[in-house]
């Protein structure tokens, strides 16, 4: 059965596992998730569940609406108006987490792509972090996809194969082992994957 939820990234911390090892975890907080729409093949051309969370200040609507595609509606006994919380997951579940990465603005090739830059001596002046040649005489134009300076970050990114370390039902917090994309306070989609 597919498990999914919308959450907000809180912070990173560390926990002690049963064998005494320290594990890095990301804490995500879950506000009430409400099923706002069930999409079907007959009506919409595909099957998915639309979930809303958060509230807008003056309108009363949901701040975030996201869709989760599912293979079979029969396996998901959900209907519009149902509420989801952290109890849909269990400790040890494998998940994929999607979010918007931190924006870095306009970045050079050294930061953006890991270029090594130019030598600091032997005739190189004021070109330490330049990218060097961007092509050759033929075909007389820069090839598409050439790694250069440009906008870095602020893109949708999915991390797969993370494990839920712990669940706090009282405070509606999930501890996910490893790093999760985005800033603290950013929205993340958590979906279960098969082991």
UniProtKB/TrEMBL annotation:
- Pfam families (UniProt xref): Ribosomal_L3
Q: Name one GO molecular function term.
A: rRNA binding
Q: Which GO terms describe its biological process?
A: translation
Identify the keywords attached in UniProt to this record, alphabetized.
Ribonucleoprotein, Ribosomal protein, RNA-binding, rRNA-binding
Mind telling me which GO cellular component terms the entry cites?
A: cytosolic large ribosomal subunit
Spell out the Gene3D superfamilies in the cross-references.
Translation factors (2.40.30.10)
PANTHER family with a match to the protein in the record: 50S RIBOSOMAL PROTEIN L3, LARGE RIBOSOMAL SUBUNIT PROTEIN UL3C
Q: Which family does it belong to?
A: Belongs to the universal ribosomal protein uL3 family.
Q: What is this protein called?
A: 50S ribosomal protein L3
């Amino acid at each position: 059965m597919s498990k999914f939820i919308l959450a907000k990234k809180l912070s990173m911390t560390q926990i002690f596992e049963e064998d005494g090892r320290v594990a890095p975890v990301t804490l995500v907080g879950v506000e009430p998730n409400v099923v706002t729409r069930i999409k079907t093949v007959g009506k919409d051309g595909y099957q998915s569940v639309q979930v809303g969370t958060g509230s807008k200040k003056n309108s009363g609507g949901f701040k975030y609406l996201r869709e989760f595609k599912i293979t079979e509606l029969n396996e998901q006994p959900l209907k519009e108006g149902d509420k989801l919380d952290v109890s849909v997951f269990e400790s040890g579940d494998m998940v994929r987490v999607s979010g918007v990465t931190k924006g870095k603005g306009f970045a050079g090739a050294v930061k953006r792509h890991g270029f090594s830059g130019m030598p600091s001596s032997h005739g190189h002046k004021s070109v330490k972090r330049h990218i060097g040649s961007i092509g050759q005489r033929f075909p007389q134009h820069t090839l598409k996809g050439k790694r250069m300076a440009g906008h870095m970050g602020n893109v949708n990114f999915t991390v797969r194969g993370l494990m839920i370390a712990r669940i706090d039902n009282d405070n509606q917090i999930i501890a996910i082992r490893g790093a999760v994309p985005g800033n603290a306070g950013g929205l993340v989609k958590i979906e279960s994957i098969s082991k």
